[in-house]
Amino acid sequence: MKRTLTLFLALLIFFSAQITAQDDHTFQRRWQTEDGSVLINLDVLALADRGYVFAGLVEIGPGNNLYYPCIWRTDCLGEVMWAKLFNALTETPNNIYGRVLPIGEDDFALVASTGFFVSTPLNDIFVARVDGEGNTVWANRIGGGTSKQDVAQGACATQDGGIVLAGKSSSFGSDANTVNTFTDQYFLKIGSDGEIVWSRTVGNPQAVDRAYDIAELPDGSLVAAGSYLHNGTFYANLLKLTATGDLVWNRGFGEPAAPQANHAYGVLPTSDGGVLVTGSSTNLQSNFQGAPDFFVAKTDGNGEVEWTRVFAGSLSNSFENAVNAVELPNGNFAVAGATASFPTTGFVPNKFVVLEIDGMGGLVKTSGFNGGSSHYPRIVADPYEGGFLVNGFTNWSGYGGNSNRFEPILVNTGDGLALSGCFDNDLTLLTVTADPAFDLVADLPGQTGSGGEILPTII
Prior knowledge:
single chain, 35 strands
């Protein structure tokens, strides 16, 4: 029996605050709330009308540090058409996630997490479906109903109109009866009606195993990427599931000797039938305590490694994370990254970069965007204009915003990852390419399980 959440719905009024640069194909735009509350942009979906739908978190009441999942739509000029928040209270930065997916002919799915991590250990997954006018079709909180972690960190739409989620759980699987800090990788299939179709956990008892991304293959099977504790240290892992959630294989990329830390944050099925994995690695450092560098790996369709690469910026001991990637028309890949390893003018060195790499892992170009103080980049293709979008949020005052408040930023690179000439620069000569050794594990050990329910109330 389906149980409906009690929701508090409110129209949030956003306005397009600034168009920092624009020609026929490229621009950088920023939005803000009318009352000065923090607005965090975590995902964007390009639409046929040349507008966009965004997913993120919004603070209600400036400075209270409490956030709600939200979704908003703009027209082709960036003007906000509608915006909606849901009463699924959460906190950041411990629980920051949001995705927007197409579902049905004209609807959208918002995927987020709800609950608290520090004050009261309780997290659940939040999924809502809204129509093209912003009206709620259904909204569900999914988890174990326990003081545990059930968190979505990746999602994709499926060919049958459903949604598959990837994340972590301590309510189900091998860590169901252990302390809250241990988790298994967690996968859920949700139908277009919001009901759970199947669930799967993968992991080991008393370990920290997390899935960060998932994608559907043409035959309906799934590939997912994450972080897996093996031999006492973190391995990046790539696993394959059937369309019904059964585990096919689980590959690992790591280095236990130092030990090192490797994590996979993105997974991309490629046009040649293979898979591209993006993440972070400390394999260039003395051990896992060093700052991570960009990690990219290419496998065939069976998860057999074709090549691995690590890329680093010019500043030593500063972090880099390769978040996700898209494939370019010429067969190259564009990898979005968060980094503090390149020169910056912002008071916080975090900035967005996009690395273009060829099909053999060679660096073609590194493009930097904004002057710092910008976070959580993600790159998506715009199938209607043919370019690429990099979204995230920033408090860099160079965009004309408030340096004490996060606000959404959207960068349209146009065709060929072109620089717009505004707050961006070519960082290719400052980028180092390396090929360190990896311990490649063909079959990571672990247990599989299942679990999950639609919960009747919101926190």
